[in-house]
Design brief:
Blueprint (H helix, E strand, L loop, with lengths): L4 H26 L8 E13 L4 E12 L5 E12 L2 E9 L10 E2 L3 E12 L3 H9 L9 E11 L2 E10 L1
Antiparallel strand pairs: 1-2, 2-6, 3-4, 3-5, 3-7, 7-8
Length: 167
C-alpha cells in the first residue's frame, strides 16, 4: 500500500512545518501595532558640560515616546542626527541591543516614556560655542532638530519608526 499510516503522518508533519515556515512572517507582523500612532518627540536637551580643551559639549538629549496603543512595546535602538541652528552635530545612537528584552525601556500601553541619551559632540561652529557660554550654558535659544530612526519591538517582531523632532 502506497499511503501507509507512517507515510500519512510524515506527509502531514511536513505540511505543517512548511505551512509554519511560510506563514511565520505574517504571524510576526500581526503582533506589531500601527507604528504611525506612536510618536517620538524631544522633551528636553540639557547642557552637561563644555570643554574648551577639545571644543566639545556634553549634552543630555531626553526623548519622550508616546504609546497610545493597547499593546506594551519596547525599543532596542535609537539612531539620530542632531542639528543645532541648522548645523549638524553628528550622528548618535542610544542602544539597548545587548540588554535582554525585560531590561529595555518599556513603552507601556497608553503612557509616555522618557529615554535619556548622553552624548559628547564636537562644536565646530564658534558662534554656537559663544552662544552657549553667553547664555550661561542655557540652550533654549538654539533651534534643535533631530532626524532619527527607532527600532520598536513587540513580542517576536520589530520595525523601524522614522521620526523628526524639534525643540
Amino acid at each position: 500500500m502506497f499511503l501507509s499510516r507512517r507515510r500519512l503522518i510524515l506527509i502531514g508533519t511536513a505540511t505543517v512545518i512548511v505551512g509554519v515556515i511560510i506563514l511565520l512572517p505574517l504571524i510576526l507582523t500581526i503582533t506589531l501595532p500601527d507604528l504611525g500612532a506612536i510618536s517620538i518627540i524631544v522633551k528636553k536637551i540639557e547642557l552637561e558640560d563644555i570643554s574648551d580643551d577639545n571644543n566639545t559639549a556634553t549634552l543630555n538629549v531626553i526623548f519622550n515616546i508616546q504609546n497610545p496603543t493597547s499593546q506594551a512595546l519596547t525599543t532596542s535602538k535609537i539612531d539620530y542626527e542632531l542639528f543645532a541652528d541648522g548645523e549638524s552635530l553628528g550622528e548618535h545612537s542610544k542602544s539597548y541591543i545587548d540588554i535582554p528584552v525585560n531590561g529595555r525601556p518599556q513603552l507601556l500601553s497608553n503612557t509616555d516614556t522618557n529615554i535619556s541619551s548622553i552624548i559628547e559632540t564636537s562644536i565646530s561652529d564658534r558662534n554656537l560655542d559663544v552662544g552657549l557660554l553667553r547664555n550661561n550654558q542655557t540652550i533654549e535659544d538654539i533651534d534643535w532638530t533631530i532626524n532619527g530612526n527607532a527600532i520598536i519591538e513587540s513580542g517576536f517582531s520589530s520595525a523601524p519608526k522614522i521620526f523628526n523632532a524639534t525643540w
